[in-house]
Amino acid sequence: VHCVAYCIYSFELVLDAFKREMDADAEKEVAGTLTWYNDKCYEFQMGHELVFDTVTGLLEYEKVDEFARVVKIASVNVAEDNTIMFRVATEDEEGKIVPLTSNQLLNFKNYIDAVKFAGTKSEIISTDADEVKYDIKVYYNPANPVDTVREAVLASLEEFKTSQRFGGVIYSHKMLEAVTTVTGVVTAKMLSLSRKGTEDADFIPIDTMAYLYAGYFNYAGNSRLEMVSICLLYTSDAADER
Question: What is the pTM of this model?
Fold first, then answer.
Protein backbone atom coordinates (compact mmCIF):
# COMPACT_ATOMS: atom_id res chain seq x y z
CA VAL A 1 0.00 0.00 0.00
CA HIS A 2 2.82 2.39 0.92
CA CYS A 3 4.69 1.59 -2.32
CA VAL A 4 1.60 2.17 -4.48
CA ALA A 5 0.78 5.40 -2.65
CA TYR A 6 4.34 6.66 -3.07
CA CYS A 7 4.31 5.80 -6.79
CA ILE A 8 1.05 7.72 -7.27
CA TYR A 9 2.46 10.67 -5.33
CA SER A 10 5.67 10.64 -7.39
CA PHE A 11 3.68 10.47 -10.63
CA GLU A 12 1.60 13.49 -9.57
CA LEU A 13 4.79 15.44 -8.85
CA VAL A 14 6.07 14.60 -12.34
CA LEU A 15 2.79 15.77 -13.89
CA ASP A 16 2.94 19.04 -11.90
CA ALA A 17 6.52 19.66 -13.02
CA PHE A 18 5.57 18.88 -16.62
CA LYS A 19 2.63 21.29 -16.45
CA ARG A 20 4.84 24.08 -15.12
CA GLU A 21 7.34 23.53 -17.95
CA MET A 22 4.60 23.53 -20.58
CA ASP A 23 3.01 26.67 -19.13
CA ALA A 24 6.38 28.43 -19.15
CA ASP A 25 7.06 27.38 -22.75
CA ALA A 26 3.56 28.42 -23.81
CA GLU A 27 3.99 31.84 -22.25
CA LYS A 28 7.24 32.33 -24.14
CA GLU A 29 5.66 31.21 -27.41
CA VAL A 30 2.80 33.74 -27.18
CA ALA A 31 4.01 36.78 -29.06
CA GLY A 32 3.41 40.09 -27.33
CA THR A 33 3.70 38.96 -23.72
CA LEU A 34 6.25 40.58 -21.41
CA THR A 35 8.23 37.32 -21.33
CA TRP A 36 8.27 37.26 -25.13
CA TYR A 37 9.47 40.86 -25.31
CA ASN A 38 12.11 40.13 -22.70
CA ASP A 39 13.45 37.19 -24.70
CA LYS A 40 13.47 39.36 -27.81
CA CYS A 41 15.76 41.83 -26.05
CA TYR A 42 18.38 39.13 -25.51
CA GLU A 43 17.98 37.94 -29.12
CA PHE A 44 18.99 41.35 -30.55
CA GLN A 45 22.11 40.98 -32.70
CA MET A 46 24.16 44.06 -33.46
CA GLY A 47 25.01 44.39 -37.16
CA HIS A 48 22.58 41.68 -38.32
CA GLU A 49 19.51 42.19 -40.49
CA LEU A 50 16.08 40.81 -39.64
CA VAL A 51 14.33 38.63 -42.21
CA PHE A 52 10.68 37.57 -42.44
CA ASP A 53 10.05 33.96 -41.42
CA THR A 54 7.25 32.57 -43.63
CA VAL A 55 6.59 29.73 -41.15
CA THR A 56 6.18 31.74 -37.93
CA GLY A 57 5.19 35.01 -39.57
CA LEU A 58 7.75 36.86 -37.46
CA LEU A 59 10.88 38.86 -38.15
CA GLU A 60 13.93 36.85 -37.06
CA TYR A 61 17.64 36.53 -37.75
CA GLU A 62 18.87 34.00 -40.28
CA LYS A 63 21.51 32.66 -37.91
CA VAL A 64 22.38 32.99 -34.23
CA ASP A 65 25.53 34.97 -33.47
CA GLU A 66 26.21 35.00 -29.72
CA PHE A 67 29.05 37.50 -30.11
CA ALA A 68 26.63 40.01 -31.69
CA ARG A 69 24.11 39.72 -28.85
CA VAL A 70 25.12 42.83 -26.91
CA VAL A 71 22.16 43.01 -24.50
CA LYS A 72 23.23 41.31 -21.26
CA ILE A 73 20.65 42.73 -18.84
CA ALA A 74 17.04 43.40 -19.84
CA SER A 75 13.80 44.09 -18.01
CA VAL A 76 10.39 44.77 -19.52
CA ASN A 77 7.47 46.37 -17.69
CA VAL A 78 4.21 48.08 -18.57
CA ALA A 79 3.77 51.67 -17.38
CA GLU A 80 0.45 53.12 -16.19
CA ASP A 81 -0.29 54.51 -19.66
CA ASN A 82 0.27 51.02 -21.18
CA THR A 83 3.65 52.01 -22.57
CA ILE A 84 6.04 49.04 -22.68
CA MET A 85 9.23 50.05 -20.88
CA PHE A 86 12.44 48.38 -22.03
CA ARG A 87 15.46 48.74 -19.73
CA VAL A 88 18.64 47.27 -21.21
CA ALA A 89 22.38 47.24 -20.59
CA THR A 90 25.50 45.52 -21.89
CA GLU A 91 28.96 44.52 -20.62
CA ASP A 92 32.28 46.26 -21.16
CA GLU A 93 35.60 44.51 -21.80
CA GLU A 94 36.11 44.03 -18.05
CA GLY A 95 32.74 42.33 -17.65
CA LYS A 96 31.07 45.29 -15.91
CA ILE A 97 27.45 46.11 -16.68
CA VAL A 98 27.27 49.43 -18.56
CA PRO A 99 24.68 51.29 -20.71
CA LEU A 100 24.48 50.64 -24.44
CA THR A 101 26.55 52.93 -26.64
CA SER A 102 24.68 55.50 -28.73
CA ASN A 103 25.12 53.34 -31.84
CA GLN A 104 23.96 50.17 -30.05
CA LEU A 105 20.98 52.01 -28.57
CA LEU A 106 19.91 53.39 -31.95
CA ASN A 107 20.10 49.93 -33.55
CA PHE A 108 18.24 48.36 -30.64
CA LYS A 109 15.44 50.96 -30.92
CA ASN A 110 15.10 50.17 -34.62
CA TYR A 111 15.03 46.46 -33.77
CA ILE A 112 12.23 46.90 -31.20
CA ASP A 113 10.24 49.06 -33.61
CA ALA A 114 10.47 46.23 -36.13
CA VAL A 115 9.48 43.30 -33.87
CA LYS A 116 6.85 44.94 -31.65
CA PHE A 117 3.16 44.86 -32.45
CA ALA A 118 1.77 47.68 -34.58
CA GLY A 119 0.40 50.55 -32.50
CA THR A 120 2.28 49.50 -29.38
CA LYS A 121 3.80 52.38 -27.45
CA SER A 122 7.31 51.72 -26.19
CA GLU A 123 10.14 53.50 -24.42
CA ILE A 124 13.72 52.30 -24.19
CA ILE A 125 16.02 53.24 -21.31
CA SER A 126 19.71 52.44 -21.18
CA THR A 127 21.37 54.53 -18.54
CA ASP A 128 23.86 54.30 -15.70
CA ALA A 129 23.02 51.71 -13.07
CA ASP A 130 20.99 52.48 -9.98
CA GLU A 131 22.97 52.54 -6.74
CA VAL A 132 21.90 50.21 -3.96
CA LYS A 133 23.18 50.86 -0.45
CA TYR A 134 22.86 48.19 2.20
CA ASP A 135 23.64 47.80 5.90
CA ILE A 136 23.62 44.12 6.82
CA LYS A 137 24.59 42.47 10.09
CA VAL A 138 25.84 38.93 9.52
CA TYR A 139 26.06 36.39 12.35
CA TYR A 140 28.63 33.74 11.47
CA ASN A 141 29.87 30.50 12.99
CA PRO A 142 33.33 31.19 14.52
CA ALA A 143 34.42 27.73 13.36
CA ASN A 144 34.81 29.45 9.97
CA PRO A 145 37.43 32.20 9.52
CA VAL A 146 35.66 35.55 9.49
CA ASP A 147 37.60 36.79 6.45
CA THR A 148 36.61 33.69 4.48
CA VAL A 149 32.94 34.12 5.38
CA ARG A 150 33.03 37.84 4.53
CA GLU A 151 34.55 37.18 1.12
CA ALA A 152 31.96 34.48 0.44
CA VAL A 153 29.12 36.82 1.45
CA LEU A 154 30.44 39.58 -0.82
CA ALA A 155 30.75 37.08 -3.67
CA SER A 156 27.18 35.93 -3.08
CA LEU A 157 25.93 39.53 -3.10
CA GLU A 158 27.76 40.10 -6.37
CA GLU A 159 26.16 36.99 -7.86
CA PHE A 160 22.77 38.22 -6.63
CA LYS A 161 23.35 41.53 -8.41
CA THR A 162 24.16 39.95 -11.77
CA SER A 163 21.35 37.38 -11.54
CA GLN A 164 18.60 40.03 -11.69
CA ARG A 165 17.53 39.06 -15.20
CA PHE A 166 13.88 39.96 -15.52
CA GLY A 167 11.56 42.60 -14.13
CA GLY A 168 14.01 45.29 -12.99
CA VAL A 169 12.90 44.76 -9.39
CA ILE A 170 15.00 44.27 -6.26
CA TYR A 171 13.53 42.34 -3.32
CA SER A 172 15.05 42.82 0.13
CA HIS A 173 14.21 39.29 1.29
CA LYS A 174 15.90 37.72 -1.75
CA MET A 175 19.00 39.79 -1.12
CA LEU A 176 19.02 38.59 2.49
CA GLU A 177 18.60 35.00 1.29
CA ALA A 178 21.74 35.41 -0.82
CA VAL A 179 23.61 36.18 2.41
CA THR A 180 22.12 33.48 4.63
CA THR A 181 22.81 30.67 2.11
CA VAL A 182 26.56 31.23 2.41
CA THR A 183 28.48 28.51 4.26
CA GLY A 184 29.40 29.71 7.73
CA VAL A 185 26.54 32.21 8.00
CA VAL A 186 24.09 31.34 10.76
CA THR A 187 21.65 34.21 10.25
CA ALA A 188 21.61 37.82 9.10
CA LYS A 189 19.62 41.00 9.60
CA MET A 190 18.94 43.74 7.05
CA LEU A 191 19.41 46.95 9.04
CA SER A 192 18.73 49.22 6.07
CA LEU A 193 18.41 49.06 2.29
CA SER A 194 17.98 51.93 -0.16
CA ARG A 195 18.37 52.76 -3.85
CA LYS A 196 19.18 55.83 -5.93
CA GLY A 197 18.55 56.20 -9.66
CA THR A 198 20.02 58.74 -12.05
CA GLU A 199 16.87 60.86 -11.65
CA ASP A 200 16.83 60.72 -7.84
CA ALA A 201 18.37 63.43 -5.69
CA ASP A 202 19.06 61.09 -2.77
CA PHE A 203 18.75 57.46 -1.70
CA ILE A 204 15.20 56.16 -1.28
CA PRO A 205 14.59 53.54 1.46
CA ILE A 206 13.48 50.09 0.28
CA ASP A 207 10.95 48.32 2.46
CA THR A 208 10.15 45.01 0.76
CA MET A 209 10.82 45.77 -2.91
CA ALA A 210 11.67 48.56 -5.34
CA TYR A 211 11.70 49.08 -9.09
CA LEU A 212 15.06 49.98 -10.60
CA TYR A 213 15.03 52.92 -12.97
CA ALA A 214 17.94 51.55 -15.00
CA GLY A 215 16.76 47.95 -14.70
CA TYR A 216 20.02 46.94 -13.03
CA PHE A 217 22.20 48.20 -10.18
CA ASN A 218 25.60 48.48 -8.58
CA TYR A 219 26.35 48.59 -4.87
CA ALA A 220 27.16 51.95 -3.33
CA GLY A 221 30.70 52.33 -2.02
CA ASN A 222 29.50 53.20 1.47
CA SER A 223 27.49 49.99 1.90
CA ARG A 224 28.15 48.28 5.23
CA LEU A 225 28.62 44.61 6.08
CA GLU A 226 29.05 43.90 9.80
CA MET A 227 30.33 40.49 10.83
CA VAL A 228 29.32 39.27 14.29
CA SER A 229 30.29 35.94 15.84
CA ILE A 230 27.23 33.89 16.82
CA CYS A 231 28.92 33.31 20.19
CA LEU A 232 28.58 37.02 20.95
CA LEU A 233 24.88 36.79 20.14
CA TYR A 234 24.41 33.91 22.59
CA THR A 235 26.40 35.78 25.25
CA SER A 236 24.28 38.90 24.76
CA ASP A 237 21.04 36.91 24.99
CA ALA A 238 22.20 35.17 28.17
CA ALA A 239 23.07 38.53 29.71
CA ASP A 240 19.65 39.91 28.83
CA GLU A 241 17.95 36.92 30.50
CA ARG A 242 19.96 37.49 33.69
Answer: 0.63
